[in-house]
Amino acid sequence: MRIISGLYKSRKIVAPKNLPVRPTTDMAKESLFNILNNTFYFNDISVLDLFAGTGNISYEFASRGTEHITCVDQDFGCIKFINETADKFDMPIQTIKSDVFKFLEKTAIQADVIFADPPYSFSEEQFSVIPDLVFKNNLLLEEGVLIIEHSKHTNLSNLANYSHSKSYGGNMFSFFESA
């Protein structure tokens, strides 16, 4: 994986092969950040990266100037890798090792952008818990957006606060906003 733009543009990051992850493709990530670039000033926002995996999305935000980034993942190897990479590049990324659903039930952390990249094998019911908890617990700041990455074979358009989706190859991003 590589960082697309910003301070660390073109830097390659190689994750250990034993991590249980499926990093967002560079093409999908670039398309997502083109959308976000038209909505947010990256140096003025806070980001919550759920099911963070390798930290791929968080590194892109950090490279573009975001200074308040929190990554949540339950895998110790993923958290260790994110911490090592953030230290190596001096990126302002805080990590929390936790089950994402338990984290969302208890956290008071609010963010402008909440990005969730759960396993593509999740059922629609499992996917639905993410926006339910985010909006029930008021975790999005005003004008914020929740983005869930999923397979193009999963349809999240019937979930509460759904706004729209964008498809890139086999990847899909569904956007959720406060009503």
From TrEMBL:
Superkingdom, taxonomy of origin: Bacteria
InterPro entries: DNA_methylase_N6_adenine_CS (IPR002052), RNA_MeTrfase_RsmD (IPR004398), SAM-dependent_MTases_sf (IPR029063)
GO BP field: methylation
GO molecular function list: methyltransferase activity
SUPFAM superfamilies noted in UniProt: S-adenosyl-L-methionine-dependent methyltransferases
PROSITE patterns xref list: N6_MTASE (PS00092)
Keywords associated with the record: Methyltransferase, Transferase
Protein's name in the database: RsmD family RNA methyltransferase
Source species: Thalassobellus suaedae
